[in-house]
Amino acid sequence: DTVDAGSGDLVLVAAGSSARQTNITKDSPVDAVIMAVIDSLEVNGQVTFRKS
Question: What pTM did the predictor assign?
Answer without folding.
Answer: 0.74
